[in-house]
Amino acid sequence: MGFLDMLIDAARQVPSTADVLRGVRMLARRIGSAELENWADRELAGYADDEPVPTYRGPYRCEAHVRYRRIPGGIAPGMAPLPESAFAEELRDSRLMRVYEVRVVDPVDHLDELVRVGAPLVRPWGGVQIDLINRLIDIGGLDVAPGHTIAAAETRLAGDSVAKVVDSVRSRVLGLALGLERLAPSAGDEDGPSEVTPAMHDVIVKTLG
Predict the structure, then answer these.
(1) CA neighbor of 184 nearest in space, from 204, 165, 168, 170
(2) Which of 163, 178, 194 is the last residue of a domain?
């Protein structure tokens, strides 16, 4: 069985997406594709918060949940949904609504684990975001119960959206291996091609784009 055949089987059957990507990284090194190796590395290690992500990693619409601080009464137990409709109408088309979006920058092994247990991807808000929201409450830009402010908040991306990201990665690996197999069946083998031909490069670009 050739390397590409093993990669195809892995993309279809191996539970660990990270293990599949390690196979892609080995393929990339053997055929001399820095572009493909960089993609596999980014998926394995995760993306920086300020760097572009592939389109299949978002941004996705998500939910916001908050923990209220009540006066009197202290911090309320549990988290409560914060609907977009709680914001003043003139704010609902503003950049502020990006708190309801999330870019999935996490490594694939973390995403695999979330899919396995059926959990959402949770992103806590920073102190600057919480301070801004509390200022909005003060000036009437956010409708909450009287005497309430926000002590903590987070965005939650539903598990089915997380699964779509993982499925997209695996589908790209499968498409890549099938596309290369038609052009260079021995790609990835120890005695296979050590340079990417223009046709192989086209497959890589189209698959990862």
Answers:
(1) 204
(2) 163
The total of structural domains in the chain comes to 2
Whether residue 203 is found in the same domain as residue 117: no
Alpha helices in the chain (DSSP H): 3-13, 17-31, 34-45, 108-117, 127-139, 159-183, 198-208
Task: Name every residue whose Cβ is closer than 8 Å to that of residue 35 and which is 6 or more positions away in sequence.
Answer: 28, 201, 204, 205, 208
Say whether both 73 and 144 belong to one domain. Answer: yes
Based on the fold, state whether residues 62 and 149 are members of the same structural domain: yes
Q: What is the pLDDT of residues 60-112, one digit of tens each?
A: 999 999 999 988 778 888 899 999 999 999 999 898 898 899 999 999 999 99
Q: Is the pTM of this model over 0.85?
A: yes
Specify whether 145 is located in the same domain as 62: yes
For residue range 3-23, list pLDDT tens digits in order: 999 999 999 999 999 999 999
> Which of 140-144's residues contact partners 24+ apart within 8 Å by CB, and which partners?
140/88, 141/87, 141/88, 141/91, 142/86, 142/87, 142/88, 143/86, 143/87, 143/88, 144/68, 144/86
- What one-character DSSP code corresponds to residue 106? S
Domain residues for 16?
A: 3-53+164-208
